[in-house]
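Annotated sample (chain length 346).
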Amino acid sequence: MADNPFPDFVFYNILVGLVLSLIIGWIAIFVARRVGLMDIPGALPHKKHTVPTPLAGGLALVLTLFIGGFTVNFSMIQDEWKILLPALIIFAIGLWDDFKRLPPWIKLAGQIIAALLLISLGTYVQIISHGVLGLPGKSYLLLDWFITLFWIIGITNAFNLIDSMDGLVLGTSGLSLALFILVTLDSSQVSLLRLLTLLLGICAGLYFYNRTPARLFLGDSGAQTIGFLLAAMGIQFTPGTHPLGSSWFIPILIFGVPIFDTTLVTISRIRRGTHIYNAGLDHTYHRLVAMGLESSRSVFVMHLATVVLGCIAFLALQVTPLYATIIFSLICIVGLVLVYWMDRRK
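Output written by the structure step:
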């Protein structure tokens, strides 16, 4: 019999995250009701729920992550504090926004501060200075830092933007985490694997409360924190024995659904002269519903697309960098065609 490719802690961590999130999620709902951390129906035009719902997802996520980390994954906390600390800034700004709706510039400023802290602690992309292009010099390092800033802020907001239906963000995040776990098994990044598995369990537990009809919403504090952590872990991921030219775009494909939705909304709103940061009913989910799909099927289509893109990412790992780049380029072309087609539909 072949050796088990999964370390012993993988399923243990998923179970710990699942059980803790179920318990802490129930407590967070109670606390949110007591302190008035509620999403009121009709507060904004795009809000379609009919009963006040606790914005307790972010609180449950962070509490479960740190309790599970300090109790059974302390070595992971010691290694991954450089991304967990900046994530707390994202959580704090998001929680503030959940309590009191903030101007977009304050939220953006908080994201920039968190991203700069992440970079200063040593987590940033190395595509230009040491990676695919292999160009030397500090000026190219600055370009890597700029790419990191764009990536972190973009993915953080992308996961927040797709939070337009019950279970959509947690389902997409859970699938992305599962895909990342599979590719990380080959990279010997034990601490990263511990964080990924713990987060997968947490997403599974919170999904119980967030599926339709939702007993809690993630809010900005939950969706943005998940997005930030995934973006940072995407930077940390190393391809193991696979060449960087075949693997640098793996996180882009795994996060392809939120990236597609953000691109669609941004282009659509620029074309129509509306503010990019305003909430609306022009996201991928809303457009799928407008095409005639049921709400649950629209969510499933987006989850299915995450799985498909993840499978393509695995296939790209098995070929030479040239063919992997061709595959990635074709996916980008298909995505842009879909953006054009969906935005042209009435």
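Annotation: The chain is about 70% helix and 0% strand.
Annotation: The mean pLDDT is 89.
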